[in-house]
What we know:
The chain has eleven helices and five strands, in the order αααββααβααββαααα. The chain is an alpha+beta fold.
Amino acid sequence: xxxxxxxxxxxxxxxxxxxxxxxxxxxxxxxxxxxxxxxxxxxxxxxxxxxxxxxxxxxxxxxxxxxxxxxxxxxxxxxxxxxxxxxxxxxxxxxxxxxxxxxxxxxxxxxxxxxxxxxxxxxxxxxxxxxxxxxxxxxxxxxxxxxxxxxxxxxxxxxxxxxxxxxxxxxxxxxxxxxxxxxxxxxxxxxxxxxxxxxxxxxxxxxxxxxxxxxxxxxxxxxxxxxxxxxxxxxxxxxxxxxxxxxxxxxxxxxxxxxxxxxxxxxxxxxxxxxxxxxxxxxx
Length: 284
């Protein structure tokens, strides 16, 4: 599905509502299983049943969080069908669920290189572009450390010497990131941004991240494209290939050149990539 208007918004809303309903059904089944094991734990005294019950409760919470995200997207899409204008972003509901206005989802490969990004707004897009260009930031640290990252105020500049000052220049005063952990490993990170110090509690952020990793991206109704809102940076990778041939360097070096030029000019990597693909002789 895409965000360019070719998909009927009423159909998109119906798909999202269907996914929400199925997620709630799975949550109810998980809760029922949890109750059964809780009774067995009480009757038998076996700790095994308590562990199983807790796992089912966590699963139910993920499904319910997923349902709320789908319902939020369905609501915005239905409103868009009436008023038209700019298509809604799935990540806007994610940011809302986390209690902030800006959120970004980053997907990585086994080498922890960024594969794709989805954002709620232009501020989160700019913040994520900075991390992509500079190779440092909260999402990267959350993935590499498999832990929650929190920073606000002066700590942002101290923790990330290059990224920090650029981030605060965007009007961001606080940031939190949590890894998207699955049974097969970490697939990325969810990062939220705020204009003032102090963000959502780690419990809420972790619950939303769990819903994204286990249900929205990889579950029975998985949609890793997030209704067309996921950017795989295809243009940037295409430009890196073109530049590597033109300059006689590796694709990795070409990508580094694109990122460096984008940061120096204070534009996105897509702007530089477009110049290269359209025949601009150099990145300068």
